[in-house]
Amino acid sequence: MNIGLLGFGVVGRGLYDLTAGREDMQVKKVVCLEDITLPDAQVTRDFQEVLQDPAIDTVVEAMGGLHPAYEFVRACLEAGKNVVTSNKALVATFYDELIPLAQEKGVCFRCTAAVGGGISWLSELERTRRTQAVTQVGGIMNGTCNYILDSMTRLGMDYGEALSQAQKLGYAEANPTTDVEGIDTWHKLILSSNIAFGVSLETEGIPVCGISKITAAHVADFKAHGLVCKLVSTGKCLDGKISAYVQPTLFAQGEPEAAVPANFNLITLVGTASERMSFYGQGAGRYPTAHNVIQDCADVLAGKGFYCPYGKKTAVHNDDQLRYYVSGVTDAWVQENTAEAWEHGVITRPVSVDAMHAWRKANPDAFIAAVNE
Predict the structure, then answer these.
(1) What pTM does this model have?
(2) Is 213 annotated in the active site?
(3) Which of 292, 362, 275 shows the shortest CA–CA distance to 122?
(4) How would you classify the pairing of strands 241-252 and 351-352?
């Protein structure tokens, strides 16, 4: 396999290092905007040099972002080149274009590192779907948020302090909005649900709430009640109806999710035969993530295309009834649905996920967290 590598950041450099000395795959050209020299690969600023090279059969996109990543990936598929990417936003946003295009052109398209970083989560979904139906997916999918929440819980940091520490360690970007507002997890849930359930979800129906409004007082409340807050995703397919959402959730101390430390992930599926299976590991990092990219390249060598056939567009219905911790706003709707009062918030009676998120959207300064029961 001759690889054209787009991007030479954390993941791109990791891929280059891990392919060194391999006989089955080599990085031949690297598209990079910085002036670097590599001993065994040509470096260029011009994407066309990769696209028009007939010797390059597989392109690895490690640039991130939507543009020009989308234009480059689409052009590579149109040209009949296999594509491997770690870009969850790209795949979730352009799922309806890229997956059918890859199938039309008869090339492979894989993105295991897009969800879970170093965890081979999407590959495990692929294997699981061979022999049983998957009824639920989700869990802790964002290492940045988990590091912040874990630091607040274990070390007593406030939100700002924990975020600053995450940025210093490289776990959070200078602008952390995509992570802390749950958008990164949202993209990963969309991709996981599409593969698990064999559909293409209508994304506007998938609500998301992040952790930016959590405070040290909230965390103290949770600890006093034997609970730990985590940002989790949930996708379910029951009786042909699909629900999907991202939100802070309270777990009892002793539950597996409550114990996940630092920037680790814990992602779970429920199968009709296997029941619950969880996958734990590094949710990011140069070599764990690059390892999954290489695994995808090996799968391409074996002729494995996408994880499932392209599925039809499917609506989401989030009528799951959950209890919620609510803090920051106590209007008439909250007071009417209150079940018990805590020092810094209230627990609502069971309400639908859609109803709670609609209220949260109208009250963006409020903090909400579902109670896992």
Answers:
(1) 0.97
(2) no
(3) 292
(4) unpaired
Structure token pair of residue 141: 């999918």
pLDDT tens series, the chain, 373 aa: 999 999 999 999 999 999 999 999 999 999 999 999 999 999 999 999 999 999 999 999 999 999 999 999 999 999 999 999 999 999 999 999 999 999 999 999 999 999 999 899 999 999 999 999 999 999 999 999 999 999 999 999 999 999 999 999 888 999 999 999 999 999 999 999 999 999 999 999 999 999 999 999 999 999 999 999 999 999 999 998 999 999 999 999 999 999 999 999 999 999 999 999 999 998 888 999 999 999 999 999 999 999 999 999 999 999 999 999 999 998 999 999 999 999 999 999 999 999 999 999 999 999 999 999 9
Catalytic one of 28, 29, 188, 213:
188
